[in-house]
Write a structure and sequence with these properties.
By secondary structure, this protein is α/β, with parallel strands linked by helices. The chain contains ten helices and 18 strands. It folds into two domains: 195 residues, Rossmann fold, CATH 3.40.50; 117 residues, Rossmann fold (3-Layer(aba) Sandwich). A hairpin with an 8-residue loop joins strand 10 and strand 11. The termini are far apart. The structure holds aspartic acid.
């Protein structure tokens, strides 16, 4: 029987109803797990590890490092890992790990729920059982298992607040679909170099959402000496205002002159940024911006946090950002 490590980090799945809302409830969770779902033991030999209990909105890169270290120190002992996590920042944590856990040969499956495990209409049971089953398959990457689908971590994003079908991977099909049968769309990797944990992240990245009437004087208040990179969530294929007081180009040029990377992603979930298409994109290229193509915001942010924390130059980070490192972008 396969051995799975089930790591708890918190989220709604570990909460209980309190008044009109829900609250973290670590004790209730650990009692519930085996009492309510003894059949989990039919799927695998499961050890549990309560790493932390947080609403995922309170997680940051130090938690990602803890989680990567936990997987690293247990890597040889288990066939797969399931991480219970809040849905709000699950795609960020999972993307971060997809870059940090190099040459992964085992499944690292994130799941959670929209409704606490202790509630009668919870989606936790189904998500947990599916995730454990997926952690026994030949998946060799970090993935999110939710509502009968498995998504590549660095392609996934939270799409719905209220639907059980909370996640999607807009630019690639799911890596598995769980119905009467399990349809697994993965190829075993060729012989891999040894697994390596490179969890180290910079917190010096800022995300700027472009919108009509964005007051550029706010951007001038940023202390660029404290930043490694700015991610610009542009319109459509990489567009932004270029006229009058709202022109963003001078800001991008200032970033370039001060050694701050400018990376463009789109506010649209589907398809890819194409900076060659419109004058704005072409000007952005001239001002030194790089394209995130079809990367999610979560992937682009965690990739830059990861790359800028490694011992590399700005130009190397810019080059690697535009390359496919862990399945996060579709090559040209
Ligand atoms: N606020 C919760 C969290 O992300 C939401 C959830 O788990 O669905 O921790």
């Amino acid at each position: 029987m396969k051995k799975i490590l089930l790591i708890q980090t918190g989220g709604t799945i570990a909460m209980s109803a309190k008044g009109d809302g829900v609250e973290l409830d670590p004790e209730a969770w650990s009692n519930l797990l085996y009492k309510e779902f003894p059949e989990l033991e039919e799927l695998a030999q499961i050890d549990t590890y309560p790493l932390f209990f947080e609403d995922s909105s309170d997680l940051n890169s130090s938690h990602w490092v803890n989680l990567a270290n936990c997987i690293d120190s247990n890597y040889e002992k288990y066939n797969g890992f399931v991480i219970l996590h809040g849905t709000d920042t699950m795609a960020y944590t999972a993307s971060a790990l997809s870059f940090a856990l190099q040459n992964l040969a085992k499944p690292v499956i994130f799941t959670g729920s929209q409704v606490p495990m202790s509630s009668i209409r919870s989606d936790a049971r189904r998500n947990l059982i599916n995730a454990i089953e997926m952690a026994t398959t030949p998946i060799q990457e970090v993935a999110i298992c939710f509502n009968d689908h498995v998504y590549r971590a660095n392609r996934a994003t939270k799409l719905s607040i209220g639907d059980f079908d909370a996640f999607g991977s807009p630019n690639i099909p799911p890596i598995a679909e769980i119905g009467l049968n399990i349809q697994l769309n993965v190829q075993p990797k060729k012989i891999l170099p040894p697994f390596e944990n490179r969890a180290k992240f910079s917190n010096k990245i800022f995300v700027c959402t472009v919108h009509p009437s964005l007051n550029t004087s706010y951007l001038d208040c940023l202390d660029l000496s404290k930043l490694d990179a700015i991610i610009v969530r542009a319109f459509g294929s990489g567009n932004f205002p270029m006229k009058g007081e709202f022109n963003l180009l001078p800001f991008f040029e200032k970033c370039r002159d001060q050694g701050v990377i400018v990376a463009m992603v789109s506010q649209a979930d589907f398809d890819a940024v194409d900076l060659s298409k419109y004058p704005a994109g072409r000007s952005a290229i001239k001002a030194g911006a790089v394209s995130g193509r079809d990367m999610t915001l979560e992937a682009a942010l965690t990739k830059l946090m990861y790359l800028t924390a490694q011992e590399t130059s700005k130009s190397e980070v810019e080059k690697l950002f535009q390359e496919n490192l862990a399945g996060e972008l579709t090559p040209h």
